Amino acid sequence: MIATYEEAVNWIHSRLRLGIKPGLKRMEYMMEKLDHPERKIQTIHIGGTNGKGSTVTYLRNILQQSGKRVGTFTSPYFERFNERISVNGDPIADNHLVQLVNLMIPISEKMEETEWGSPSEFEVITAMSFFYFSHINPVDIVIYEVGLGGRLDSTNIIQPLVTAITNIGMDHTQFLGETVEEIAFEKAGIIKERVPVISCVRQPEAIEVIKEKANEQLADFYLYGVDFETNEEENLQAGEKFAFRSGQIKETYEISMVGRHQIENASLAIKIIELLNQKYEFNIDNNAIQLGLKNAYWPGRMEQISSIPLIYLDGAHNPEGVKTLVRTIEDRWTNKKVKIVVAALKDKDLKPMLSDFERVADQLILTTFDFPRVASPQELAGYISMNNVTEMNNWKSALPDVISEVKSDEVLLITGSLYFLSQVKPYLNSVIKN
Question: Over the chain, what is the mean pLDDT?
């Protein structure tokens, strides 16, 4: 019997030794033992390579503004493990986490005797979330973010009201495939029979894969740039402004998150709300959409930590994420020198990521942090040809000096792995007072 929060989290993390275990048999077994809590909740399913977390937070805030109790299941956490399972943005309480772990331990032990073996960490957390949202802290609707891929992801046992695929990029290729088509096939695996699917995917070959799957499942398919679109886009000092069009609907919205890519994520959320209104009579008005988008905030995504000096955090942890960050830099800071602090994991495609940073950085500062699979500054330096490069092995002791040297015509971007940013942010909050 687990008695404390620390013991509960340690038990969950102990499942990491089992690695990633694609497939749904273990989930189906656990759901049967728990009397199928996943069938007792209404859900929305969000997949894709990047932008899932931002889309979830836009959607959650809009639904909250309309008076709904909204559950969210996201990963990874940013500052505290409990964030992964939240209601109206409030993370699960420690005592509820302990309660759920004690529920899962005997099921997990019994599973060791089965042909499928014991559940992975992610499978355990997913199962816990279903029980939490259906029995412990009931909600009106839950937004589920896919963990990895889609087709074989442990979240893929839900029957959602709407499915969304944000975009397709070359990430987790060791699990999802080496081509855009192969990755799109895995992502499209979350499309269910007669459940509408919305996407901001751009590559023609990926669109064809998703279209084909939607047709196969008799699911209506809505594509950004074809069935709905944004224009009249404008950079604001803290966020973006844009016009959204879908059929006869045209409205202007503002968001507080920075970057043109956030406009796409927000438009995806608006289109999901439109379908919830049309198909399921949710009756969410435009005022809730306006306020929800404006109030939405997602940590570590072009998050301004300081104005003097100007410091941002952004979790650009794969090639597509870096390209998006580079576009934002080119869009907003042509009149500033850009210093970039980066730490990354070895299993990422580091060469194109670092090459893109070289294009826009006046100085690159390479570092590392305490985490499995992390690359050293020296390993990162091996992919870089520019001259103004600094290596720092201890980011915590070196960062105060880096910050003190940021001038008024410069911006400091701290980026790379979200796990790195989750260590950096609380430290920065303790040393920066503006």
Answer: 94
Apex CA 340: angle with CA 338 and CA 344, to 5°? 160
Q: What pLDDT band is residue 237 in, cutting at 50, 70 and 90?
A: confident
| Contact status, residue 11 vs residue 105, Cβ threshold 8 Å | yes
In the predicted structure, residue 21 carries a pLDDT above the cut 80:
no
Gap between the Cα atoms of 226 and 209, Å rounded: 16
Quote the CA–CA distance of 73 and 126 in Å, as a whole number: 8
* pLDDT in the model for residue 171: 65
**Contact status, residue 83 vs residue 91, Cβ threshold 8 Å:** yes
Distance CA 48, CA 51 (A): 7
pLDDT at 26 (0 to 100) = 95
Query: Residues 6 or more apart from 223 whose CB is under 8 A from it?
Result: 198, 199, 201, 207
Residue 416 token pair: 């790379």
Task: Report all structural domains of the chain as residue ranges with CATH numbers, in order of start.
Answer: 5-295 (3.40.1190.10), 303-431 (3.90.190.20)
CB 26 within 8 A of CB 116: yes
Q: Higher model confidence: residue 55 or residue 316?
A: 55
Distance CA 244, CA 251 (A): 5
- Residue 397's SS3 state is helix
Among residues 12, 19, 61, the alpha carbon closest in space to that of 297 is found at 61
Q: Is the pLDDT of residue 175 over 70?
A: no
Contact 253, 289 (CB under 8 A): yes
Helices first, then strands: H and E counts in the chain: 15, 17
